[in-house]
Amino acid sequence: MEKRDTLIEVRNLKKFFKIGDNTLKAVNDLSFEIKRGETLGVVGESGCGKSTAGRTILRLYEPTAGDVLFEGQSVMKLNHQEMKAMRRNMQMIFQDPYASLNPRMTVGDIIGEALDIHGLASGQKRKERIQELLSLVSLNPEHMNRFPHEFSGGQRQRIGIARALAVEPKFIVCDEPISALDVSVQAQVVNLLQQLQEKMGLTYMFIAHDLSMVKYISDRVAVMYLGKMVELADSEKLYEKPLHPYTQALLSAIPIPDPEVERKRERIVLQGDVPSPMNPPSGCHFRTRCPKAMPECSAVEPVWKEVEPGHFAACHLYN
Amino acid sequence: MQLTKEHFEPISVDLRQAEEIKRPSLSFWADVWRRLKMNKVAMASLIFILLLVACAIFIPIFSSHDYYTTNLAGKNKPPSAEHWFGTDDLGRDVFVRVWYGARISLEVGFAAALIDLIIGMIWGGIAGFYGGKVDEIMMRIADILYAIPYLLVVILLMVVMEQGVVTIIIALTITGWIGMARIVRGQILQLKAQEFVLAARSLGADNNRLIFKHLIPNALGPIIVTLSLTVPTAIFTESFLSFIGLGVSAPVASWGTMSAEGLAAMKYYPWRLMFPALFISVTMLAFNLFGDGLRDAVDPRLRK
Ligand SMILES: Nc1ncnc2c1ncn2[C@@H]1O[C@H](COP(=O)(O)OP(=O)(O)OP(=O)(O)O)[C@@H](O)[C@H]1O
Ligand code: SF4
Ligand SMILES: [Mg+2]
User: Fold this and answer.
1) Which residue ranges does the record assign to the ABC transmembrane type-1 domain (chain B) (predicted)?
2) Each residue's pLDDT tens digit in chain B (304 positions)?
């Protein structure tokens, strides 16, 4: 693979929510980079903080601590005006195609809103640009005067993609863009995202809860557990040689299409439930379910380190 | 039968064709109107309300009688061609007085609803939008005000103000806006966490755009429904206060004062009680039925 420069650098990012007197550490100290033009997959069980991470990186939530650098520039230190300009670089595609489009606005206005906010086009040019964006995501440009409820889930997700593309961003957080869709249209939307990436040189952070889909589209994959990253590697490497016991367990749950291999394979079944993020276990957060847990795992939190070149993990097995 | 590869043939799907949309394009409010029109009861109520408003405006203007001229020679007359609803104990025309009463009732109803809307929307909107401490303090203040009974407020206001329509409206709205504020706050709180609001923020939308393009248009349904149910409550309260002598005072006609006067003479001159009482009941019913119909039309999922 060619050497790519870094587009996004996340440094010790934290996002805690206050819930009553408790603190919920939804995102707890993430550090990683995303290279220009790559797709970084992020996987983890529901509630592990994937959406919160994506939203905090885009500064839709103010971080509790840490910073994000976009092309070397600190996003969190920008003032109001600079942030507005920065928003043209970074966009998001949302999880729920029903909740992510304003039901009182026409599709044209939903896509055109970005043009209005940044003064990118008005009048006839605005209309042409909206139609161009609709065509780009394979929707009928004549449908710009219709309302979101008239479209199917897949079509709505395309509208959401067109909206994100309207500002010509460089980086898009795709927050489980296909989880809510029928299996039959999932592939269409993924293919569209890939085509757009190729055509426009986009960089994606692709969030999903299931490893098999992420493998297909990601260059590198990060695995999250209870607000922390536990492993990050090239997707080939991660699938061939997962280091972290949690990744190993996730991978072993994916069926392999070859029945010979499938039968002989050993499956790691995780014990117990995911602990509450309000009150995570001491030391390694995964220790209550880890088949390889050792005494020191409950005492000391494992550090995030580069175990092999380009392969990061946080586990005492690799100290 | 043995299936071989040749039995299967890929079907080409024309994407454009597949994305054809059959339903006519309707905006939210056009859709509400379509559903409302199908509801016969609500439409009948709406027509009644519109007629009531029109009559309350025009009948007192064009009638040959007025509400205050007394005629002791022709007192307590039963309904006739000259006095459709009869006359009262001072010989005043009950028909015209009923329509004057309608004016007062509607004035109080609409004014109270409008003031509730304005205060409730600003108060609830700010609390819901900013959340956190601001929300907590504002809603705590609302809770405290809510605990004061309006009857007490009316009596206290009577001490410092003249008895009349304005006093009633103030008394009603001092605590009345709280219901609206709670509705608006709940709506905004729920809406602002939705992904389309996050999407607008990620595009760089400022607070003004968020509030006026995204939050209010989506909260408008429940707001209007609440509003339509505030009107009959206010009308009833005005009638009640006037009935017990805390409302408008003579010679002004209100359905409440007319009922009170009519009640005293119910045995001998029943029309003097019957007409104002009938108007109160039917008007309340119409507003409530219309409000219910509107609620169903705005949010069909709420229908029981
Ligand atoms: N605005 C918020 N206020 C309080 N807690 C929140 C908020 N948003 C998320 N959380 C909590 O933070 C944790 C992480 O949530 P998040 O939505 O980031 O998870 P996720 O990995 O995206 O899950 P999913 O796969 O279900 O989307 C959850 O426990 C959630 O309840
Ligand atoms: S640190 Fe210990 S408990 Fe955590 S994953 Fe590694 S071995 Fe398991
Ligand atoms: Mg999520």
Assistant:
1) 102-291
2) 566 666 666 555 445 444 555 556 677 888 889 999 999 999 999 999 999 999 999 988 887 778 777 777 777 778 887 778 888 877 788 888 899 999 999 999 999 999 999 999 999 999 999 998 999 999 999 999 988 887 888 788 877 888 888 888 998 898 889 999 999 999 999 999 999 999 999 999 999 999 989 999 899 888 988 998 899 999 998 899 888 888 887 778 889 888 888 888 888 888 888 899 999 999 999 999 999 999 888 876 655 4
What is the C-alpha to C-alpha distance for residues A175 and A187, in angstroms, rounded to an integer? 16
Q: Does residue B198 fall inside a structural domain?
A: yes
Q: State whether residue A228 is helix, strand or coil.
A: strand
B135 in any annotated domain? yes
Q: Nearest Cα to B53, choosing from B296, B286, B304?
A: B286
Those residues whose C-beta lies under 8 Å from the C-beta of residue B259, and which sit 6 or more positions away, are: B239, B243, B273, B276, B277, B280
Q: Is residue A18 classed as helix, strand or coil in its secondary structure? A: strand
d(CA A45, CA A62): 23
The 8-class DSSP code of residue B11 comes to: P
Tell me whether strands A220-225 and A228-234 are parallel, antiparallel or unpaired: antiparallel
| Cα–Cα distance for residue pair B301/B28, rounded to 1 Å | 15
Kindly report the protein residue whose alpha carbon is nearest to atom 7 of ligand 2.
A293
Cis ω for the linkage preceding B217 (within 30 of 0) = no
| A148: its two tokens | 């979101």
Q: Which helix (H) or strand (E) holds B189?
A: helix B165-192
8 Å CB contact of A101 and B196: yes
Inter-chain Cβ pairs, chain A and chain B, closer than 8 A:
80
Q: Residue A201's closest CA among A7, A1, A3, A55?
A: A7
Question: How close is the Cα of B80 to the center of ligand 2, in Å?
Answer: 96
> Whole domain around residue B59: which residue ranges?
47-65+89-302
Q: What contacts B8, CB < 8 A, 6 or more positions away? A: none
Instruction: Choose among A99, A138, A155: nearest Cβ to B196.
Output: A99
CA-based nearest residue to A155, from A204, A104, A216, A98: A98
Residue B139 within a domain: yes
- Which residues, including other chains, have CB under 8 Å from residue A74's CB and lie 6 or more apart? A67, A68
> How many Å from the N-terminal Cα to the C-terminal Cα in chain B?
52
> Cβ contacts (< 8 Å) between A101 and chain B: which residues?
196, 199
In total, how many domains does chain B have?
Answer: 1
Q: Cα(first)–Cα(last) distance of chain A, in Å?
A: 28
CATH code of the domain covering residue B232: 1.10.3720.10
Beta carbons within 8 Å of B245's beta carbon, 6+ residues apart: B260
What does the buried/exposed string (b/e) look like for A92-110 if buried means 16 or more CB atoms within 10 Å of the residue's CB? bbbbbbebbbbebbbbbbb
Structure tokens, A98: 């029903």
